[in-house]
Amino acid sequence: MKKLYLIGKSLKHSISPLIHNKILSNFGIDAVYSNVELPDFEKLKEFVEMVKKDGDVVGFNVTIPYKEDILEFCDEVSEDVRIIQAANTVKKENGKLKAYNTDWIGFKKSLEEVNIDVKDKKILILGAGGAAKACIYGFYKMGAKQIFVANRTYEKATRLRDYFREFVQLQVINWLKKESYEYDIIINTTPIGMFPEVEKSPFDIREYRFNLLLVYDTIYNPPLTKLLKEAELKNINTSNGLKMLIYQAIEAEKIWWNIAKDIEQFEKEELDVLSRNVLMTY
Ligand SMILES: NC(=O)c1ccc[n+]([C@@H]2O[C@H](COP(=O)([O-])OP(=O)(O)OC[C@H]3O[C@@H](n4cnc5c(N)ncnc54)[C@H](OP(=O)(O)O)[C@@H]3O)[C@@H](O)[C@H]2O)c1
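# NAP complex -> structure
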């Protein structure tokens, strides 16, 4: 049986094995996907050595905090990874490791379902970490031109602005003053509001005086964060991070097994069922 893994820290609540094993069984692929907790960089090194030796390992996903560290061990990177400088998917081919990023595709696909043309919209991204990078790259690919970034650590947001300068103009907003400006779309990429701290919100929607078209939270546990609840109370469109997670998983499976054709069918027919099953596990 072939093997796939998710590596990272604090994976106890991860639902990735549920999603991937469902996709694998749907396609009749004889493989199993499981989590591997790696407490430090030394363990990451050991894991990579194990992967290179084990002929049954096809690839692995990478999550916090190794999305950047993993690049050091990869022989090749995709064009997207070269730009984003973070990978969430690695494939082993002829003993060599190639890094991919499917987070941004997951984000883009989930956003496309909401059916808003983002090209002329004012977009606020909360946070400046790995998920923010994936969302910004996704927006760049969708042709967005007015992207604002607010982050607790201001310098990290300015670094992000400089980093993406070649592709998209980002404007940095002071975290403490972010509610004073007008946006059409808000994307939360911070962990504020995530289980167990469900009473927190990264943005005061209740007091916000401008009209919003969409509030999107990359968090999926809980499915309805405080941020999204408050947006729904004001009749604003909302979306959580579950579809992003599922779509990025499907994209990773496509890469590992060179699937292109039938998976599109799977996406349409099974995604809703899978979302419901995943939500029932909370
Ligand atoms: N749905 C999906 O498929 C998906 C995929 C990836 C990530 N995510 C979500 O995105 C979140 C962030 O992931 P990441 O990879 O971007 O992590 P990361 O690289 O560690 O970045 C976290 C960001 O959140 C900010 N932050 C953290 N705690 C904060 C707090 N208490 N107050 C204000 N800002 C805070 C950090 O600000 P500083 O710079 O000041 O530290 C940083 O900008 C995850 O928790 C997850 O919920 C979802």
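# post-check
DSSP finds nine helices and twelve strands in the chain.
The longest strand covers residues 2-8.
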